[in-house]
Write a structure and sequence with these properties.
Keywords: Cell membrane, Membrane, Symport, Transmembrane, Transmembrane helix, Transport. 84% of the residues lie in helices and 0% in strands. By secondary structure, it is mainly alpha-helical. It has one domain (6-201, 218-425): Up-down Bundle (Growth Hormone, Chain: A). The longest helix is centred in the C-terminal third of the chain and has 34 residues, at 352-385.
Length: 427
């Protein structure tokens, strides 16, 4: 971090802290999905329907994100990145606290189930504006090694996964059935702390310098930068595969293999893969400014296409803890190449006056497609074929191919960053 000036370090740190807290809140749902399902959907006795409903509610929060991300992106392009980030972290913290304190079906009946779904949707709205805002404010503010800076930010995001895994395991050991409530309450309180800390963020100079009279409208974003939007969606789809399938859905996938293990133990088994992602995102981000951001993204997407089928096959067929640890680490190494580089590429697709709108729409639409469809599609493939490795493997291959397509379009279109030289994007 010493390679950046003080203002750049503060932006990376303050944007990253919020990203940790927001993803912690969001990931808790998947970690404690069984306990939450038992609390709010006790009236459903069929285990298959209950499992399907649990995944569906997880997906709903992703399906609202394109609308939320687009609207909040437009607002962020009008009022600034700082104000948007203050709003999203406050909303996420409030939803988390309410979810932790809310009575279950036994006390409130169907109203409890309905209210919980509404809070999940509001979490999706908050996340729809949070991460695009954090990505853009770092991209526009940091002076120097921009590839490394955006990789550091994503390292903070993966820190949210690590934090939620650690808290989930610890709370389950201490509180037992009450663990999921304690986790959400802690997340809510930390969200309010994050809001207080994040007030020290400053608006970006790029945003301040926009000519308000020549600002593009949202309709011009679609008409003028349609190809850029499509490229952004394709590139983020491979990122969403990692964010949804390799860090969230995989928890349920491994639970179905290791049926005698509880949620906390599954989190511990998967923690080496998340540690791998966190560490190597940092390493690959540092290398990207030397080797080329586009080259490293392309390698990562290509490796995922090649490795998805054998990794999930070995994970399922061997079915041991050691096999799951090794194979999950391998696929995370591939994903780290993508995670370390995509933020710069995505932000670089759009000019300043529509950047947050463009990033918000493409990022959240991609996550809605993968988060809303991939878990259900994977479950459907598994049900139809009786091979539980085929679902996530096929999803991974398709997402990897789309990521490569997005990179091809990016290289044809070019970018808007002031330091976008051959060293940055060389392939």
């Amino acid at each position: 971090m010493q390679m950046y000036d003080r203002d750049s370090r503060n932006v990376i740190l303050l944007a990253g802290i919020g990203a940790i807290l927001e993803f912690y809140d969001f990931v808790l749902y998947m970690i404690f999905s069984k306990e939450i399902s038992a609390t709010f959907f006790a009236q459903i006795t069929n285990p298959t329907i209950k499992a399907f409903l649990t995944v569906l509610i997880f997906s709903i929060a992703y399906l609202v994100r394109p609308f939320a991300g687009t609207i909040l992106g437009i607002i962020g392009d009008l009022i600034g990145r700082r104000r948007l980030l203050l709003f999203t972290i406050l909303l996420m913290g409030g939803c988390s606290l309410c979810m932790g304190l809310m009575p279950g079906y036994a006390q409130w009946g169907l109203f409890a189930s309905f209210a919980f779904v509404v809070l999940r949707i509001m979490q999706g709205i908050a996340l729809g504006g949070e991460l695009p805002g954090a990505y853009v404010i770092v991209y526009e503010s940091v002076k120097g090694k921009i590839g490394f800076a955006t990789a550091i930010l994503f390292t903070f995001v993966t820190g949210g996964f690590l934090f939620s895994d650690f808290v989930g395991f610890t709370l389950e050991y201490i509180f037992g059935d009450f663990a999921w409530r304690a986790g959400f309450i802690i997340g809510g309180l930390l969200g309010f702390v994050g809001y207080y800390v994040r007030r020290n963020l400053h608006e970006t100079q790029e945003f301040e310098n926009i000519d308000k009279q020549k600002r593009h409208s949202f309709s011009s974003l679609i008409s003028t930068y349609g190809a850029n939007l499509f490229a952004g969606i394709c590139m983020v789809i491979i990122v969403a595969f990692g964010g949804v399938m390799l860090t969230l859905y995989i928890h349920k996938f491994v639970e179905d293999i290791l049926v005698s293990y509880n949620s906390g133990q599954i989190s511990l088994i998967l923690m080496p893969s998340v540690l791998t992602l966190t560490c190597f995102t940092f390493v690959f981000g540092f290398l990207s400014d030397k080797v080329g951001i586009a080259k490293m993204f392309t390698l990562g997407a290509g490796f995922i296409v090649v490795c998805a089928l054998p990794v999930f096959y070995l994970m399922s067929s061997i079915g041991s803890v050691s096999a799951i640890v090794i194979t999950s680490v391998i696929i995370m190494l591939c994903y780290a190449l993508v995670a370390a580089t995509f933020i710069f590429l995505l932000c670089d697709l759009f000019p300043t006056d529509v950047r947050l709108s463009g990033v918000g729409l493409s990022y959240n639409l991609a996550f809605a497609i993968v988060g809303g469809v991939a878990p259900l599609l994977s479950t459907t493939i598994i049900t139809m074929t009786a091979y539980n490795f085929l679902g996530p493997a096929i999803v991974g291959i398709v997402c990897g191919v789309l990521g490569l397509l997005g990179m091809f379009i990016y290289l044809r279109k070019g970018g808007y960053h002031k330091t976008n030289k051959d060293m940055i994007v060389k392939l």
